[in-house]
């Protein structure tokens, strides 16, 4: 029996690889001579850097960057030594909502400058292929902070160079942008490819745009939403003239990360794609699945969103292309989940074996024990059926 384990992280408890290794322990208790592979799984959000970098034998790099409020912090990204030398970056490492206290959250004052610093550092390390996760930003600057860090110049209506009050551009500076000069963006960018993990389909502006949908949770006041939305719209029109491209700000994903998706797509030539697809392709999971007898996936919480395209569902879909049975090992099942079936997943198994508090359930040591025990029972049964 050959088993492939590709389990998403159980956030706040275990990484993707840790989940897979615990499940593999259970397999070997039941079937000592079983073959298996543990592969990383993520959806482009939190945990993607760790999952993909570790799973592909890469290394981690920490550098100093600006956080959303311009303070120096340490940010980590991954580097995979393949022919293209790939950088794995989560924008939340430099521009994340969790990096600043709730009382200080204000998209008028926050910047994506640190994201540009991470890209520049990766360029210096020889990276020419980028996987970017867009989740969890504290920003609403349409990416002008990032572009400024990469070398772009921004001017107001009088032709004055905009540099920002503290040397970096923020969401509030969008109000004054009248012209963009991208000519001095680091020339190495032209040699690069960017795959942007983006699991929201919001446009840059409008009723479903970045400001109206995501602005309030980042700290925008109701009185600021309409104004910032108009700034986004004007920036799109200016960009259309400058880049001489057929820019469509209605493109799904342009509103992701406070408009950062727009700048990645049109200024850096990035492709906005579902995060789980990127991870599955970049880690060659299809090849491993095609050679397996059974595929085991899973995640921390099984709920209605699982059936709407989360990472485990992507794994299950590929497995069914090769006619492989699929089992899901999950941390728990949401009370609101009342479905007995999930597309392409043959059966799912929660790991909780006795009543426990959330803190007890999420304790990494306890989670490992529970995953291994659940996996062991699954494969004990399967070994009996096989024989």
- Quaternary structure type: single chain
User: Can you give the helix content as a percent range?
Assistant: 25-40%
The dominant shape is elongated
Strand composition percent: 15-25%
Largest sheet: spatial strand order: 3-4-5-6-10-11
Order of helices and strands: EHEHEEEHHEHEEEEHHHEHHEHEEHH
Distance between the terminal alpha carbons, to the nearest Å? 12 Å
User: What is the structural class?
Assistant: alpha/beta
Average of the residue pLDDT scores? 93
Number of helices: 13
Largest sheet composition: 6 strands, mixed
Radius of gyration: 22 Å
Q: Which residue ranges are poorly predicted, with pLDDT under 50 across at least 5 consecutive positions?
A: none
Number of strands: 14
Give a short overview:
With 387 residues, this protein is an alpha/beta fold.
In words, what does this structure look like?
The chain is of the alpha/beta class. Helix content is 35%, strand content 19%. It is built from 13 helices and 14 strands. The protein has a six-stranded mixed sheet with strand order 3-4-5-6-10-11, with helices on both faces. It has a five-stranded parallel sheet with strand order 2-1-12-13-14, with helices on both faces. Strands 8-7-9 form a three-stranded antiparallel sheet. A hairpin with a 5-residue loop joins strand 4 and strand 5. The longest helix is centred in the last third of the chain and has 23 residues.
């Amino acid at each position: 029996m050959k088993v492939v384990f590709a389990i998403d992280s159980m956030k706040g408890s275990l990484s993707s690889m840790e989940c897979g290794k615990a499940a593999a322990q259970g397999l070997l208790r039941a079937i000592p001579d079983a073959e298996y592979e543990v592969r990383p799984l993520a959806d482009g959000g939190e945990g993607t850097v760790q999952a993909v970098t570790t799973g592909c034998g890469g290394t981690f790099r920490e550098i100093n960057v600006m956080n959303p409020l311009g303070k120096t912090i340490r940010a980590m990204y991954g580097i995979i030594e393949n022919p293209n030398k790939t950088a794995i970056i989560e924008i939340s490492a430099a521009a994340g909502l969790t990096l600043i206290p709730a009382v200080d959250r204000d998209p008028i004052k926050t910047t994506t400058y640190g994201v540009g610093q991470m890209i520049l550092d990766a360029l210096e390390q020889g990276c020419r292929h980028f996987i970017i996760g867009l989740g969890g930003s504290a920003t609403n600057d349409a990416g002008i902070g990032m572009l400024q860090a990469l070398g772009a110049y921004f001017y107001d209506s009088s032709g004055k160079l905009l540099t920002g009050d503290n040397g970096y551009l923020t969401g509030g500076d969008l109000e004054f942008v009248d012209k963009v000069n991208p000519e001095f963006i680091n020339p190495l960018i032209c040699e690069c490819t960017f795959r942007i993990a983006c699991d929201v389909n919001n446009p840059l502006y409008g009723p479903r745009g970045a400001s109206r949908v995501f602005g309030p949770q980042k700290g925008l006041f109701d009185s600021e939403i309409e104004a910032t939305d108009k700034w986004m719209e004007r920036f799109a029109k200016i960009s259309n003239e400058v880049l001489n491209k057929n820019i469509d700000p209605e493109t799904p994903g342009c509103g992701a990360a406070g408009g950062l998706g727009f700048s990645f797509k049109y200024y850096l030539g990035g492709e906005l794609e579902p995060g789980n697809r990127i991870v599955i392709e970049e880690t060659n999971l299809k090849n491993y699945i095609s050679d397996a007898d059974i595929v085991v996936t899973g995640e921390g919480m099984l709920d209605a969103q699982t059936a709407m395209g989360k990472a485990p569902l992507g794994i299950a879909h590929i497995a069914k292309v090769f006619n492989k049975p699929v089992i899901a090992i999950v941390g728990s099942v949401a009370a609101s989940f009342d479905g007995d079936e999930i597309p392409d997943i043959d059966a799912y198994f929660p790991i909780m074996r006795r009543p426990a508090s959330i803190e007890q359930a999420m304790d990494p040591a306890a989670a490992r024990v529970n995953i291994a025990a659940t996996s062991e029972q699954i494969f004990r049964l399967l070994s009996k059926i096989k024989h």
